[in-house]
Design goal:
Layout lengths: L17 E5 L12 H12 L5 E4 L11 H13 L6 E5 L5 H13 L4 E4 L11 H14 L4 E5 L10 H7 L5 E6 L4 H10 L6 E5 L28 H5 L20 E5 L2 E4 L5 H6 L4 E4 L1 H4 L1 H12 L3 H22 L1 H10 L16 H10 L6
Parallel strand pairs: 1-2, 1-10, 2-3, 3-4, 4-5, 5-6, 6-9, 9-10
Antiparallel strand pairs: 7-8
Helix pairs in contact: 1-2, 3-4, 5-6, 10-11, 11-12, 12-13
Length: about 375
Amino acid sequence: MQAKFRAGFYNKQMLLEGVFAAVTTPFYPDERIYFRKIEANMARYSRSLLAGMVVLSSTGEAVTLDDAESRDVLRASVDATAPEKVLIAGVGHESVRATLELAEFAASLNYDAVVVRPPSYYGGQISPAAVLHYFRNIADRSPLPVVLYHIPKFVPVEMPVDLIAELAQHPNIIGIKDSSGNVERTRETVTATENAPRRTVAVTQVFEAATARMMVDNREPSPKAGATFVSAGDLASGAAVATAPPAAPVKTRERTRSREVGFQVLTGADRAIFDSLQAGASGAIVAFAAFAPQACQEIYLAWKEHDLSLAGEKQQRILAAGNRIVGGMGLAGIKYACDFNGYYGGRPRAPILPLSAEQKAEVEQLLAEIRN
């Protein structure tokens, strides 16, 4: 990897607390990427109370994009996102080399961290030892801190808790997104990683995450391949006049404080946000937040204020919708839920089929009281 990334990159640590939306990748009917809708979504998420967004996750259909498309989505997303929102790039590929190349590109755009799934194509040949080797190689050379991604539903590769505890000792592996939904596993992971190295991270004056983009002077938008800028307001009103991207204001470096954190465990299961927080998780990265960020954030805020009764009520409020839309309908359900709640989802890429009229009506009924 390029030497310019190696000097001091372990100092680029990141606070991962709160709720993060695993965002979608909207497409035109002919399956080209709809960059204007990406911009509109990211601008709207930026006005929410979300801690940040994860681009090119499972929800973002990363495995359906080629390399050029992945880079274009990363570029369009960062240009439309407020600097105070943490941005995490999904960069996992089947090889160490391809993963690192995309991680380097994300670093060039001032993303804050990368999330990496284990490789899975070769099945039984991907032993725990191979997973350990894969993640260590990536973490050794990644210019951004690495978040592990455990999602057995889609990537049935063994990642036992003792393996995670061993990886947590690496200075450039800062946390894990565990989408198993197993709260006891979350608790075990928190306990097993308690002796991981403590890291000093930059935080704002109110102890929220200080992002890479907040710390850059004279930030300018990067050119978007295949995209033209249309403001979220114009898009919502039906206007489609392409303009030059707005000039970014000249920024001075934000005043920051420092804080020590250990290995950070986040749940990837919307049904388990409250229980995972109680088990020691620092937050959640969930698809439900792509179409109802406020509903997810309310769970976290009530928990943070030690109102456990209210946090439990807020969790119950989203349980049925999460189980059916995210757990049952999957990508098609998530993307239609985005459309219904004022974000842009559209159809998933083939071979995933869109929802039927009956399924759409079911989503609308489930979200009738969760409109945000």
